[in-house]
Every structure is written in structure tokens, then in C-alpha cells.
Write a structure and sequence with these properties.
By secondary structure, the chain is α/β, with parallel strands linked by helices. Helix content is 39%, strand content 17%. The strands form 3 sheets. The chain has a 7-stranded parallel β-sheet with strand order 3-2-1-4-5-6-7, sandwiched between helices. 43% of the residues are buried.
Length: 440
């Protein structure tokens, strides 16, 4: 096959898929991306740069649409040059979130497009209204923002989404042509290691079995429950003199808005709380091998998220044999069953989070069973080798025009509709409890 990948941040979600297809003799794989991105083995990289940024005069509801059009134009120009040189893909695989694939089917009419559909925004029932009620302005802005996604849904011949929860954010009329296949975790690399050790500042040495609590996020922000985690950390450090907390993540903002008054959320929480700073360690962003050792050291790993895209790090933590203490929100509930392969908590309750951290630390035998079950969940449903096999079959089928019959992956859970309704009820209850509690 000849396969064209498109993603502004190469390799993105195609980190494993593009090199695997490129490793097959006879395949030709091309990747269109922004300038300055990494090279992949056996993959020919083509770079694009938009002609300009969205105009300052553009209505703010439409800036993302204009940005998508500019991206789509720039990618189309690169594709046109490739076509002039004789390249015609059998299939295009593109992350559609930034508009890059909007015009590619005009360059290669008849070439099928497989779109990666990561998220469709909704003003109610998911991330937007979870932390605070949206204003009418927010609702209108989000409705307009989805115009780009609707164009992509119309343009794509088929789609792929990593989780059932993320699929179900998309309009029901399009779900029939989106397959649920996770990006996958390399379970041979990400695995438990009882011999792991680590050294922090002041030559502090930690080993497997120590009271090590871990928290990981790309950036430390409310969308990933950072304020709730920090308030729980304050409680745990005061109750447990031997506990150490390792926090991984940057001070920027990936999702949502920046703190009011400037600064970052880490500084904000440090100013608010009374913490033993000798036992909470902020490592910033770390290399992947360091990240894996942190997971392997963990006695309790906290993962909190609003109802939004599920982080790779949670599945990786489970693969590493962590006891994941996850928020009782739909994306987490799709994977974790409370007391079976992890522990679930109220996103808004620092006391609940602290109590379950202590439950994990106080019950090593019970947690050993949960650790094994967590890893088995990943082996059964998210192992890279299995996910890649399904992805490659999907790419091949789309290239050949084969109709899909398993657009929604079967998941051994209760029906998602029940889970979503349950999550909504729990979310409302959580917010009611939050509003009745003092802010501190």
C-alpha cells in the first residue's frame, strides 16, 4: 500500500502505526506535518506551514475554523506537489482536529480518508459544564467550534476513535462509521518492576514498597483534577510521616483557562496549602524512561479527569501494575471497576481521594490483586500488538473499500448509556457536595 498520514505534531497518535506500516516491504508511507517534527524510520516526511495566523478581526467564534481552513490549504498545497511528482496514496489517515485533511480528497478524488476523531465538543454533559456552568456565550462558541468537526465527519469515509466514551461524544448519525480502537500500550515495555529504585533531591532513595504516591499530567491544571489532588496531598502528608509524593507535569495549560490573577496552578496551590515540601517532589516534565520508573515505584497513583479525553498515562499506569485511584467520571469508568482493577473517587472530594490513597497504602495484599487485575485489563483490551493489528486491518479495509461491520468495539462493561447517565447523576451529586463544602 501507499499510505499518507497527516498530523500537525508528528507522530502523535500514529507513533506506532506509521512506522509499522512503513516496515512492510513494498509499502510506501508519507507523513505530512508541521515543520520541525521528528523523523520516523522508513517514513518520508513532508512539511507544511500555514500562510498566516487567523486574522485579529475574525470573530472569536470562528478563529478555530479559520485556522483549520489555513491548515487545510497549506496541507493541500504540499499534497498537490506530491501528486505532481507521481505520489497517489491508496488511503489517507489523518487526525482531523485541526482541519489539515479538509481538502485532500480534492487533490486525490476517490482516495478514501480514515479520520482520527478524538473529540466532539458539547456544552453540556461532558467537560465544559463539569467544573462551572457555561454561559450563553460559551454555548454559542462551542456550537460554532463544532462546524469544523462536522465538515470532517462529512468528508471522511471512515473514522477511528480511541475509546467508547470519546466516540459517543460525536453526533449519533455519524457514529456508525467510526471504529473504536485504542492507540495501544507497549505492555512489554510498560510493566511492573519490583526491583525498581529511584533517587530524588538530597540523595533521597526510594524503592518499590515505600509509601510513594504519584500524580502525572501533561500540565498541572483543573481539567486533570490538580487542585483536588493537592488538597488530598496535604491531608496525606500530615497523616503519614513516611509518605512521599511525586508530581510530574508542566506549569502550562493544555485544557481550560489559565489561573485568574496570573501565575500557574502549582504556585497557586502551594500558596493555599500547608505542605511538607521535603516530601512532595515536583519534577516538571520528565523523559519517558524516568516516567516509567516513577510508575513502577508507585504505591498509589492518582488520576483525575473531567469527562474528557482519556489520558494515555492512565492506561500506562495500569500496565505498569499501579493501583490507580481514578475519578468517578465516564472516561475512567469505561476502564476501571471500583475495587476490581482500581479505586474510584469523587473528583471534587480531597477527603475521599486522601482516604483511598491511605486504603491503598494500608492494604498491600488486597492491592496486589488489584495491581494484577489492572495489568490484565490492559493486556486484554489495550495491548499495543493487538491494537496495532486491528488498526492495520482497518487501514487496509478502508483502502480496499471494504465495509466495516464492527464499527463499535464490544466492551465488557454495562451499557455505555447507563454509565453515562450514572456519571451525570454522580457528577451532579459531586457538584452539590462541592458547593456545600468550604472552599478550603
Amino acid at each position: 500500500m501507499k499510505v499518507l498520514f497527516v498530523h500537525q505534531n508528528c507522530p502523535g497518535q500514529f507513533k506506532h502505526l506509521a512506522p509499522r506500516l512503513a516496515s512492510v516491504e513494498g509499502n510506501e508511507v508519507v507523513f505530512i506535518t508541521r515543520t520541525g517534527k521528528p523523523n520516523l524510520p522508513n517514513v518520508r516526511k513532508l512539511e507544511y506551514t500555514p500562510a498566516r495566523e487567523p486574522a485579529p478581526s475574525t470573530h472569536r467564534y470562528l478563529r478555530l475554523m479559520e485556522e483549520g481552513v489555513l491548515n487545510g490549504q497549506a496541507v493541500a498545497k504540499v499534497a498537490l506537489e506530491a501528486r505532481k511528482k507521481g505520489f497517489r496514496p491508496d488511503v489517507i489517515v489523518a487526525h482531523v482536529g485541526w482541519g489539515e485533511a479538509l481538502y485532500l480528497k480534492n487533490i486525490w478524488p476517490g482516495v478514501p480518508l480514515l479520520g482520527y476523531f478524538e473529540w466532539f465538543y458539547r456544552p453540556f454533559g461532558s467537560d465544559v459544564d463539569f467544573l462551572d456552568p457555561p454561559s450563553l456565550d460559551d454555548v454559542c462558541r462551542i456550537q460554532s467550534r463544532n462546524g469544523l468537526h462536522l465538515l470532517n465527519l462529512e468528508t471522511a469515509d471512515w473514522g477511528i476513535s480511541p475509546t467508547q466514551w470519546q466516540l459517543n461524544q460525536h453526533p449519533e448519525s455519524y457514529r456508525h462509521k467510526i471504529s473504536v480502537i485504542h492507540d495501544g500500550v507497549d505492555t512489554d515495555l510498560v510493566k511492573p518492576n519490583p526491583d525498581v529504585t529511584g533517587t530524588l533531591k538530597d540523595n533521597l532513595k526510594l524503592k518499590y514498597g515505600d509509601e510513594v504516591i504519584t500524580y502525572v499530567s501533561r500540565n498541572l491544571e483543573p481539567y486533570r483534577g490538580f487542585p483536588s489532588f493537592m488538597r488530598a496531598a496535604e491531608r496525606v502528608l500530615k497523616r503519614r510521616p513516611n509518605a512521599h509524593i511525586i508530581v510530574v507535569g508542566g506549569d502550562g495549560v493544555s485544557y481550560g483557562s489559565r489561573p485568574k490573577g496570573g501565575g500557574n496552578y502549582r504556585e497557586q496551590m502551594l500558596a493555599e496549602l500547608d505542605l511538607d515540601l521535603s516530601r512532595i517532589h515536583f519534577l516538571g516534565k520528565v523523559k519517558y524512561d524516568v516516567f516509567l520508573r516513577i510508575l513502577q515505584l508507585s504505591a498509589a497513583h492518582v488520576y483525575l479527569t473531567v469527562p474528557f479525553v482519556l489520558s494515555w498515562s492512565m492506561i500506562e499506569a495500569m500496565s505498569a501494575g499501579c493501583v490507580v485511584i481514578g475519578s468517578r467520571t465516564p472516561p475512567v469508568e469505561e476502564v476501571i471497576r471500583d475495587g476490581k482493577n482500581g479505586l474510584l473517587v469523587d473528583f471534587f472530594s480531597p477527603e475521599d481521594i486522601a482516604n483511598r490513597i491511605e486504603e491503598a497504602l494500608d492494604n498491600p495484599d488486597k492491592m496486589a490483586r488489584i495491581r494484577r487485575a489492572a495489568r490484565q485489563t490492559v493486556l486484554d483490551r489495550y495491548a499495543l500488538k493487538d491494537c496495532l493489528e486491528r488498526q492495520i486491518k482497518l487501514v487496509t479495509d478502508v483502502a480496499r473499500g471494504v465495509k466495516q461491520t464492527d464499527s463499535v468495539a464490544s466492551i465488557p462493561l454495562t451499557s455505555l448509556s447507563k454509565a453515562v447517565k450514572s456519571g451525570a447523576v454522580k457528577r451532579q451529586a459531586s457538584k452539590a457536595r462541592r458547593n456545600s463544602r468550604p472552599k478550603a
